[in-house]
Amino acid sequence: MKKLLATILTIALVLSLSACGGPSNPSPPAASGTEGGSGSSGASDFTPVTWRFANQHAPDQPGCILDQRICDEITEATQGRVTVELYANNALGDYTSVFDELMLGTIEMAHITPVESYDSRVSAAMIPYLGTTYDELLKAYARDGYLFGQVKEALGAIGIELMGICPEGYNGIGTMTELQTPAAPGVDKGIVIRTPMLDIFALSGIDLGFRVSSMPYADTYTAMQTGVVGGWAGGSITGNYFVMRDLIRYFYDYRQNQEATLIMVSSQAWNQLLPEDQEAISQIVAKGCEDMAEITQKADAENIPKLEEAGIKVVQFSDEELQAFADSCHQNVWPKLSANYPEGFIDNILADISK
């Protein structure tokens, strides 16, 4: 009887444990979040979000048209999980305040001029003579390249995700008088020009042979009107047509600096997305930045004859002359700029674009 009772109790205990404990090899519990940090288990559980996208471009400018296209494509690619509303022409503040709000997460997305206040690498896409053609620029700005990786790292440290570097035109120099020996780097050009208040602009102008006066953009037109300076750097062919065609009589297409804006997303907003939506947005912006190079080339080609119709002589340089400007800059300017960046930064960029 004792053996029978023990057997019955053992069978009852096994049945009880099986009922309470579930299967002997249970599947692991579903993850509470995703790799992107959304906290949902998939697209069906994701709560749609609406982002504000700030830019500094006027509604009819190519950069603004591109940004609206990006907004539409993101909404479609994410099946409405991410809606992006564009606020153009500094509607949410100038680029410096928008940059700070990206860091704080109070603005989710922006397409603006880089701000180097926190890390000098952020504006490195405008280093002079990264290339003299748009194909060379796209190579320098490639997502798998050294420069992109460094800018991404610098922004990531302050809570911003880099989506793309957008080429928006080569800077030349507009003048009110004709230059002597314009194609000879380092030879005095006989005039003082305005440059933006950054070494990457001032030093490249000096290396070309100009005397420079660094001043804010807002003061440039008056300074030229009053003869304080005889020309200006910091504008492309298109920029000179729209802004300075009433003052300048010559435009020299030196291509010494490139207008490079950044498309960025707040890390706080980015980390809430599903991984598949992050990938879609990355691809959309990368394609947009590539397309911007073609858009800019087309705009410049269309505005050269418009400058000439306005009585302005457009001076363009041969490939050999442009390469001579670039070689001089790499030799004389880049070593001076290296003091503004981490050790080896400039050398590594040169090595990368020379491959």
Q: Mind sketching the topology for me?
A:
Blueprint: H1 2-21, E1 49-55, H2 62-77, E2 82-87, H3 95-104, E3 109-112, H4 134-140, H5 146-156, E4 160-170, E5 172-175, E6 192-195, H6 199-208, E7 211-214, H7 220-225, E8 231-235, H8 237-244, E9 250-252, E10 258-266, H9 267-270, H10 275-309, E11 313-315, H11 319-332, H12 334-337, H13 345-353
Care to describe what's here?
- There is one protein chain.
- The chain contains 13 helices and eleven strands.
- The longest helix has 35 residues, at 275-309.
- Strands 7-6-8-5-9-11 form a six-stranded mixed sheet.
- The chain is 43% helix and 17% strand.
- It has 355 residues and is α/β, with parallel strands linked by helices.
Strand percentage, roughly?
15-25%
CA-based shape: globular
Task: State the share of residues found in helices, binned by percent.
Answer: 40-55%
Poorly predicted segments: 1-40
Gap between N and C termini? 89 Å
Tell me the radius of gyration. Answer: 28 Å
Question: How many beta-strand segments?
Answer: 11
**What is the number of helical segments per DSSP (H or I, 4+ residues)?**
13
How are helices and strands ordered from N to C? HEHEHEHHEEEHEHEHEEHHEHHH
Which strands sit side by side, in order, in the main sheet?
7-6-8-5-9-11
Largest sheet: 6 strands, mixed
Oligomer: single chain
* Mean pLDDT across every amino acid position: 88
Secondary-structure class: alpha/beta
